[in-house]
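Recall that a protein's primary structure is simply its ordered list of amino acids. Everything else, from secondary elements to tertiary packing, is in principle encoded there. The following example makes that idea concrete.
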Amino acid sequence: MMAGAMLGAAESGMLLLIDGFIVTSALLVAHALAPDILHYCVFAHRSNEQGHVVQLAHLGAEPLVQLDLRLGEGTGAALAYPLVQAAVNFLNEMASFESAGVAGKA
């Protein structure tokens, strides 16, 4: 069910915030069906589970944080979400040199 939801979200162009061992397990199934799904994934964290390290290596994924979590309630995604939101805000709202009136070299 999770893999199907991931495939549907990616098909709609949504960002997938991948959290922990169980979610990455579902992503492995989705990835086997549609390898391009990785273009929609942001990996929240690397859990302290050894299997998760292997999964991330298989996918060539580098998570945003490594906090040695193994709680299983989506805490890694909850902690990573503000980083993703900040990155989106920088891309959408940060002024360019031209719009900010920054002069070039004199």
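The beta strands are 16-18, 41-43. The domain at 2-94 is CATH 3.40.50 (Rossmann fold).
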